[in-house]
Amino acid sequence: MRILKRLCYTLLALLALIVLTPLAVIQFGSAGMATTSKVVLNMVLGYGGEAPDASDIQQQLDVAEGFGVSLYASDLGKIRFLHSTDAGDLLVSRPRSGDIVLLERDRNGDGLPDAQRVLLSGLTRPHGLDIAAGWLYIAESNGVGKIAFDSAQGQTNGSYQRIVDDLDDKGNHWTKTLRAGDDGWLYLSGGSSCNVCEEEDPTRATIMRFRMDGSEFGVYATGLRNSVGLDWAPWNNALYATDNGRDLLGDNFPPCELNRIEKGGFYGWPYVNASTPDPDFGGKNAAATAKNIPPSHEFRAHNAPLGLRFLRHSTVGGFERTALVALHGSWNRSEPDGYKVVSLHWQDDGTIVEQDFLSGFLQGDRLIGRPVDIAEANDGSLYISDDYSGSIYRVVAGKTAVSSRRLELPQQPQGSSKSDPMLGAYSPEQRDHLRRRGEQLFNDYNCSGCHRGAALSGLVERYELNELASFFSAPTPPMPAFPLSAEDREALAVYLLLRPNTD
């Protein structure tokens, strides 16, 4: 009963946050509340901002001494994780579009990719990706697949093969991150289904491990609420992972974490936050609490550390034993925090010093980006993805002139009532029945309590019917996952895509 009550309080708090934010901005002009509103819309519905121009980058972004930053690509939509191939091409995952995009390397030296193309489509919310032994491995929300990949040509060969199936992707934290280790194993992170709970599925809130063909699958480490970034320290091959702390315990607790991952290790969740017992679950499992491994480094609460990348090719002094971490930024602090890339520097005594590396994405109430992942090319170039504006930034050693032009990269075609073949396939009677059923669901779940005004406008330009219906089965937090059947999700999607914006 206590858990149910806290869940209800959690949902009410989230609803209040979203509903009251516009009013707070109008009445008080709060920069923090304005930014929170933008971030919640970005998380739940995919809304973002315009890509920054050269002036924005020069005036707002601040990069570490010895480096220069430029806008490498834009208008890419809800991009997430990156991988730089040996040839210098950049692979980009787009969970909402269900595809992997390839940005061709900059052969002509103008600071922009030479072209863009969809490398693989029809995937189930792809997120993490890596290349090993001539294979491109992709972590979908419910499994892992591979396809032969020629890095020199930037081309796939043969068919896509699933090697791991039936992973749970319901509820929150459905993204999976995958990395190939030098030990011949693939490592896969899977987040929790909730803010805080005792999971029934043993693969949730863990890091898993299996062979390159999917065999010998097992859980490698547990107690990891949402470990999104994975990488190995090149000087000792230790595996590290970022981890997002739970919500709704105040502005400054609990910290987010960087953990050194050991086989069989337990990292606290849901019973311990860093080194402090959880106020709800701390007394429920004394044996697990006693096994808790404290973090190697603590980030500020709600900074949401995502991508993690140890530098292997940097020529800038002071970055020899360094990792970069993308801080996606808070959605639930009274004063927004994060929204930058930080560098972690390992000291001789084993301590870690955190410094800003690329900052300035948030200044006052002006938000231009939310960093997600970092990729390092063999030439030392760094690429940073931003899922707020759909942009990728390039950071290189030395001062780099910001490109004076922008490559026009076409977005994935989006559905509309005129072009979506599924909407057009319904008879008038079927369309009307689904629209009326969807409207009933919309009202039954009081969707208008959160999504007001322009919050539902433009859906038809960003979603196809199948994509929107699929989103309802595992919505992005803080939107709750309602108990909708496949028919309910279809009806709700039809209603929203046909619904005029009358709010």
Automatic annotation (TrEMBL):
Keywords for the protein's UniProt record, in alphabetical order: Heme, Iron, Metal-binding
Signal peptide: none
Limits of the Cytochrome c domain: 433-500
Key word Metal-binding present: yes
Pfam families: TrAA12
SUPFAM superfamilies, sorted: Cytochrome c (SSF46626), Soluble quinoprotein glucose dehydrogenase (SSF50952)
Gene3D superfamilies: Cytochrome c-like domain (1.10.760.10), TolB, C-terminal domain (2.120.10.30)
Disordered, as annotated region: 405-426
Protein name: PQQ-dependent sugar dehydrogenase
